[in-house]
Design a protein that fits this description.
Length: 155
């Protein structure tokens, strides 16, 4: 189920055209992934303490429309595919029902030295709560915050 994180666009995130700078969306996506992990009781400090890291190995971002200062945005985050030592996370940035950005983020699982490793069962179980149903194509059927929690509100 997709996790939802709410954000508000700040003035310092704008480019000279008064749109959110393209690089800021990458930060929004990171905030969404970190929030989703915390909601599933998998915060990054815990993963590190257990000897694991989740690292971005590929980022495919599609920009569809611009956001502006004061816009209320939602970052939807879900795990769309899990492999032996990596997975693909599908994310969307929305303003209301309008999709502004879509992204497929390949995340590798490594040990603390950076060597790829198979995730333990507890990590796979936690991430499975961010997965869609079989045949799911990245669209959220109904609003849900994933992991049974509310998204974070940044004001």
């Amino acid at each position: 189920m997709a996790h939802q994180t709410d954000l508000v666009v700040r003035f310092n995130e704008l480019d000279p055209y008064n749109h959110v700078n393209h690089s800021v969306y990458v930060t929004y996506l990171e905030v969404g992934r970190e929030d989703a992990l915390r909601a599933c009781d998998l915060p990054l400090p815990r993963l590190s303490a257990e000897g694991y890291q989740l690292v971005v190995t590929r980022l495919d971002v599609r920009y569809r429309a611009a956001a502006e200062a004061g816009d209320h945005l939602t970052v939807e985050t879900e795990v769309s595919e899990m492999r032996r030592a990596s997975g693909v996370w599908r994310q969307r940035v929305l303003r209301g029902q309008d999709v502004l950005v879509t992204a497929d983020v390949t995340i590798g699982v490594t040990d603390v030295t950076g060597r790829p490793t198979r995730p333990p069962e507890w990590l796979m179980t936690g991430l499975s709560s961010l997965s869609g149903p079989p045949g799911h194509q990245g669209e959220t059927a109904e609003p849900d915050d994933g992991c049974g929690t509310q998204g974070r509100q940044d004001d």
